[in-house]
Each structure stands twice: as C-alpha cells, then as structure tokens.
Amino acid sequence: MSGPSIVYLARRTNRKVVLAIFSGLWGGWSILAALSQNYTQLLIMLLIAMAGYAGAAPITNELFSDLFGDRRRGRVAGYFYGITSLVGSGVGAAIGQLSKVENGWRYGLAGAGGLAMVFGVAILIFFRDPGVGAAEPELSHLSRSQRDAEGKITWSRVARLARTRSFVLMMIQRLLSGHLLIQTFGVTFLVQVRHFDNATAALVTLPFGFGYFCAAVFVSRLTDRIHLRHPRFGRIGSLQVAQFGFAVVAFAATQFDWGSTITIYIGFWFLMGGLQGINPSLNRPIVMSVVSPELRGAAFAIMLSIFETAGWAVFNYLGGRLGDSIGLQHTFLWILVILMIVNAAFVTLLYRPYARDSAAVRDLLAQRARQH
C-alpha cells in the first residue's frame, strides 16, 4: 500500500530523489534487518524495507514511459525486469547456500541492502528525469513546463482510470496471476514433495531467474516486433500465449515425479521463469498505452502496489492453507495450472477495449498538442 503515497510524494517533489531514496538508499533497512536481535525486530525492518522497494516500482515504470516511446517500451521493461530478476535469483541462490553457514542469512540480507544502496547513489549521480510525457511523439514540440502544465493530476483525471475498461481488466488479470506462487513455494515444493534438501532445491532459483532474464531480454524484442506489425492486438495475443504456456509447463513440472536428480527440475524452472519473464514486457506497455502520461504513476501504483501485491498475498495465504490441507502438488495443480488457463481465457476480453482505449489516448495527446 506504500506505492500510491510514494508516487504522490514523487509528483509533489522530485521523482529522481524519491526514486533514489526508496529504490536504493532504502537498502539500509535490509542491513538493519541483518543486525536484528529477535524475530520482532527482523519483521519490522523487513516490512519497512519492502514498503520502500514496493513504492519505488510504480515510479520506475512511469519513468520508462517518459524515457522511451511505444516502439521500445516492451524491450526496455524486459531488460529492466530481466536483469533485476537475474540478480535477485542469484542472491536467492546464494542465500540458499548460506543456509549451510551459521548466520548466513545475515550476510545475505546485508549484501543485498548494500548493493541496493550503491544503485541509489548511482541514480543520484547519473540519472536525469526527462519530465512527464517526454517520449510521446505528439508532445515532442512542447517544452517540459508546457507538458507539466498539461499533465497536472486532478481527481477527475484519476477517476478516469476506473472508467478505462482495459485498465480495469488488466487489474483483474493480475489477480488471476497464480504463477506468482511458484516463486514463494517452488523450493518448498521440491523439499516437501520431491524430498530434496534445502540447498539442492534452492539451485532452481538461479535457472528460474536466468530463464526470466532470457525471455525478458530476448523475447521482448520479438513481442515489440509483433506489436509494431499488429498494434491493435499484438501485445494482447502475446500475453495470452504466455499465460497458457506457463500452465502447460507448470503441469509437466509439478504433477509428475521426475526422479531424484535436480537437473530436470532446473530445466522446468528455467522454462517457467521464461514464461513469467515475458509478462513485464507486455503488461507494462499495455497499461502505458491505455493511460495518459500524467496518470501512469498512479496506474502503476494501483497495479503493482495494490492489485499485484494483493494477489501475491492471497496466493501465498492460499498456498499455505491448501498446502497443509490437500498438499502442495494439488495446490499447484489448481493455482499454477487451472487458474492460469482461466487467466489465459480471461485475456480474450482485452482485445476490443485495448484497441479502443489506446486510440483514445493517442487522440487525447494530439488534442493537447494542438492547443499549443
């Protein structure tokens, strides 16, 4: 829930400084968590750290839309999320190996926090905020002050998000994204159901991240080309294929016992990571296309900090409860397979509204340009 507040703060003050604080310098809280002396301290420090990181995500996505035009947004989002996933998976695998070391988790948290702080300082030194709407071709002849004047946020404009059908459908689609559960319970599944030890099971986190990275970086270029050739439905169709593809791979990976070697599971986790990695290069540009520039920060705050976080929390809760009652294998069947098939079918509802809403945004920007 920190996202909307941090986005509001960024729009009222300085996006660059706010981003540097909450995405980077906020890593200090992870270091404090590593120094915690009891569970209560650890929980408080981690909650504060996660609130800051979650709040920075909407600002980052808003900046992508201001830095890059529609032709390149998919691959840019893919590069960013691919690299961060690869780094995160590497950290996850390292922490898994640190489980063999006394207090190894402390070293992992401190290292992650220190790395985040380095990125925060780099943002302060090297990054330049282009201003809201800078990458829109319709507004290219306007000065930054003119774009800012046109892009002032009002309550009536915020309310327009709720009337944008494709945006509302995208929020519901995020609530159906059961594949998020694999990141939380994937290693637990391999330990409890397939009987690997923790260190061996944790080995799948790195190939998962590498698969995510490969798809985010390389497949995003393909999905951008599909969008350029079919701007009315290319991204929607690609999103639908990704959801269905994940369900198929998850079924094979979790509903059959492939023996006592971790190698084949590494392959499955690589594929599942790849099919997840396609998503940011599609759902982020879809939202950017149907929302005007000044509302994108708010839109991503709603999408990432509310709907996606709520979905993740619900799936984690259900994963734990269902895992205890019917077992993780059957839980994965319902959430990773059946629900993801429902997700893919639901995406069908986006085809017509997306074409209409994205055209409406282009018309709105053209109208603003004519006023100057």
UniProtKB/TrEMBL annotation:
Subcellular location: Cell membrane
One GO molecular-function entry: transmembrane transporter activity
Pfam families (UniProt xref): MFS_1
Bilayer topology: Multi-pass membrane protein
Segments forming a coiled coil: none
Protein name: Major facilitator superfamily (MFS) profile domain-containing protein
A Gene Ontology term for the protein's cellular component: plasma membrane
Major facilitator superfamily (MFS) profile domain boundaries: 1-355
Organism (species): Microlunatus endophyticus
TM segment ranges: 17-36, 42-64, 76-95, 107-127, 175-193, 199-220, 232-252, 258-278, 298-319, 331-351
InterPro entries: MFS, MFS_dom, MFS_spinster-like, MFS_trans_sf
Annotated keywords: Membrane, Transmembrane, Transmembrane helix, Transport
